[in-house]
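Hey, resending since the last one bounced:
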Amino acid sequence: MLTLLSVVALLKLADAFFPAFQKTAQTATKDFITALEFVSPEMSGVKEAACLDTASRIRLLPVEVPSTISKDGKVGISFSYWAADQKKKSKTFPLPLVLVHGFDSSCLEYRRLGPLLAAEGIDTYAVDLLGWGFTQLNGVETFSAEAKIAALNAFLSEVTNSGKFCIAGASLGGAAAIDVAATNPNCAGLILIDAQGFVDGIGPMSIMPSPVARLGVEVLKSVPLRSSANQMSYFDKVKYATDEAVVIGRLHCLREGWNDALVSFMKSGGFSPSAKLAMIQCPSLVLWGRQDGILDGEEFVPKFISALTDSELQWIEDCGHVPHLEKPGETATAITSFLSRRVLEETGGNKGLNGGGWIGIAGFGAAALAMADQLAFP
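The structure tokens again:
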């Protein structure tokens, strides 16, 4: 296990042996140091090893946004990162994959899937949408859907050095992923996990008076409501819809400023993904839990397959709304197969992707980080 200083030393050593990568190593080192300015969430009472590990990996990365979102032109976006198994990476998939969580959730949602994708050779990020998860809350002017997408695109640009990437979105995170895939030319592949793609806006919540909206937000944070939603999310409720799952799902709600951020989003009107589906040109995987009790696959899957110009479908059997949590192994297998077959096929294999190699956090520095397996950060 290496410390941060050991990783920096590795990068300097690589710089000495490979002068051509000097700029790459310096950029990767700078990015990681910047991203370390973050205190992990309080995890008292949480015992799930995957959750504790994911929480320990959360970092905050400043990204540039319009002054209408933040007056100083930057916001902090939180994320967890799993470096690819380098032995498998060259054979599997050279592009980074960014995972986007669902409504009012966090990167902890991908605590079981992220490590499995990395083990298959995929550099994997689980990113928080602005206003949710553990992102910056103070000093932000708006947490609208547009602000969330702007910050997400800025994050993607930072971690890929404006290079190619693939994106996955679960539930409402699918709406954000659809927006990115439709409008960002660097998106090489889209994965929709029980995604929201045909429900535009958030209904009457957008026109509620602010005091009423604040009361609604308090209800959304409550243990009874979260517990009810937890029950609806799984097929195997006994195994997965646990009290600890509710605790984990509420961690970000306890942060100061969470209420105001959610009210801001609600008042903004939410996402409108349906019109953007026809704009997507990259290969897409529609992945769905067969027993989803929240978004019925029998209703929505045919709509996705019809609307997307280049898509394939993978059902996950005996599974509810969150395959990445309930069936992470099968979900990882389906995603890995799709990326290694379809996306590499479309992008022409390993050659020429991102101009011969992406730097930023997912680049040369990640190769050194992979040697560490886990960093011994405090």
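The longest helix spans residues 328-347.

Sorry for the duplicate.
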